[in-house]
Amino acid sequence: MAALTRTFRRRPRRSEAAEAQGPSAAATPAAPPEQTPVDIAPNDPLLAYFQSATGAVDIDTLELESPALEELKAAGVKLAVPLVSQGELIGVLNLGPRLSEQDYSSDDRKLLDNLAAQAAPALRVGQLVREQEAEAVTRQRFEQELEVAKLIQQNFLPKELPDLPGWQIAAYYRPAREVGGDFYDVIPLPDGLVGLVVGDVTDKGVPAALVMSATRSVLRASAQRLVEPGEVLEQVNEHLCPDMPEKMFVTCLYGVLNPETGLLRFANAGHDLPYVKTADGVIELRAKGMPLGLMPGMDYEEKEATLEPGDGVLLHSDGVVEAHDPERDMYGFPRLKEAVGKFPAGQELIDSVLEELDAFTGPGAEQEDDITMVTLQRSSGARHAQAASNGRVLAEFELRSEPGNEREAIARVEAAVAGVGLEQSRLDRLKTAVGEATMNAMEHGNSYRADRPVSIRVLESDGRLRVRVTDHGEAVELEPAETPNLEAKLEGRQTPRGWGLFLIEKMVDETRVESGEDGHTLELGLRLEGGGDGDA
Amino acid sequence: MATRELEVQVRREDGEAVIDLLGDVDSSAEQALMAGYAQATDGGAGSVKLNFAGTEYINSTGIALIVGLLAQARTHGVEVKASGLSDHYREIFEITRLADFMTIEGSSDA
Fold this sequence. Notes:
The complex is a heterodimer of chains A (536) and B (110). With 536 residues, chain A is of the alpha+beta class. In chain A, 34% of the residues lie in helices and 24% in strands. Chain A folds into 3 domains: 14-130, 2-Layer Sandwich (Beta-Lactamase); 165-378, 4-Layer Sandwich (Phosphatase 2c, domain 1); 383-527, 2-Layer Sandwich (Heat Shock Protein 90). In chain A, a hairpin with a 2-residue loop joins strand 19 and strand 20 (519-527). The longest helix of chain A is centred in the N-terminal third of the chain and has 50 residues, at 106-155. With 110 residues, chain B is α/β, with parallel strands linked by helices. Chain B has a single domain (7-105), classed as Transcription Regulator spoIIAA. Chain B has helices at residues 30-40, 60-76, 87-95, 98-101, and strands spanning 7-13, 16-22, 47-54, 79-83, 103-105. Chain B is globular and about 35 Å long. The model of chain B has no long low-confidence stretch (mean pLDDT 90). At the A-B interface, helix 10, helix 11, helix 12 and helix 13 of A face helix 2, helix 3 and helix 4 of B.
């Protein structure tokens, strides 16, 4: 049977007059098949009538203040059979007069009622399928947009961070499923200065990603020409304002670091305040300024702070502090500030905050907004001075004293020495020595305490590689390594353990222990000679 | 190099019990290693072979575990062999003199 009605649901708009061939063999076409559909307005009382009708409705005798009813009458419709499924009107079957010009009999009506009872659920299923298909298409389009936004975003984040002797820079960016407009940048500037940027575009998806890429480009260009961070933000604001889409703006913190002196000059366009971990506690870097792109002619206050040896800065986006736990409490600034104070700086801080955040939001929670963190840490003074006289720093980092973190130490030292031409067998020995030295520092020096990190520096000078592993243990002398007595161990007269220091000494060319008030340093030395046949 | 907690598989080969070590031999390996040894010697095997071909990382704690296993084997009169060691760890087995108490078999790239 041909579909006799236009399908509709909830807010039906129209039904078609019948092409009345079918339900009853006696029925005859009352009108040409091309008859125009009859519109039923959503507020037409006819809808309510059809909805509650118990069977076929005689149109001719029906009295209602209804424009649609008039239209049906005019179109020659004699009988309307509402199609109701689960109490919901989903269509109407309109029939013209019978071919025999007799009235519809009670048998006809019964047949039509039965037909309607069968057809309505089938029609409903068809409608649902069609709705689902439409939803799937919408969803797919949405996912594609997210992909595009992600691509734009990732394309404009730095591929790698510059190597700053005496400083450690680490960055982290994790987009939310519905990508936001976070960005960060580390910009090499004239005279050895370095520009640091963290920003956040309001809104999400492709629009935010596009504004983010524009902001980043303008900022990069301005940063090369202007020295003062406040002027840079002023200029970026001037550029952004004319083309900024309505209801969008950008918060952004921009700082210029002098790596030699530790002086950080910064300005802030309404972005979350960075935290600095100092010897005296955690402080905020405050500077006033409106977000970018809201209105032209804005001034940006400029402030400065000196990062002393050992100090560390955390720049972050609101995705961190605005994360919620299952009870809808926010992670908030106080928690983040506390985290900066209690965890080691650098990559370790980022990892620790992420761990805390995941625990806070609970398992399986969807990330609400992009999360961005950039950390900048100045090496402690003595070691920094030493670095200057002792050659090139290949890597410098801190690790938390946790079982298994020696693997992280091994991986990072291996990456740091990748370019120095160490042959494979010597690289393997170095890796074992670094792993053992780190374990030793975490276990014996730091007693696996969370507030006592292990610091590792990798230096190269005069054909020698040196890895310095420093703990924060009490001022006690490290015992010299003894050659383990394997026979005694096998006979159970000695513990099977006690191989660490012995292995370290066998793996490298020289070892040196320095003990100070705030810890011990074990230095591993390896000559770079004979690296020709290696694959390093 | 990613960490990988040790798993062991025990099989018989030419009347010998072979313990295939898959993963890291470090402090987290103790249970798996000892369970492997117990399973391997369950039928009264006279010889046990540790196959390190699936191991990329052995540290001093792992060495201590192997020493412990070796000590246990000696009291039971079980011979212990090792195979599948990389050049690096073969060198460590020599430096620690473990190689004096167990037969090291096979080419390094087994």
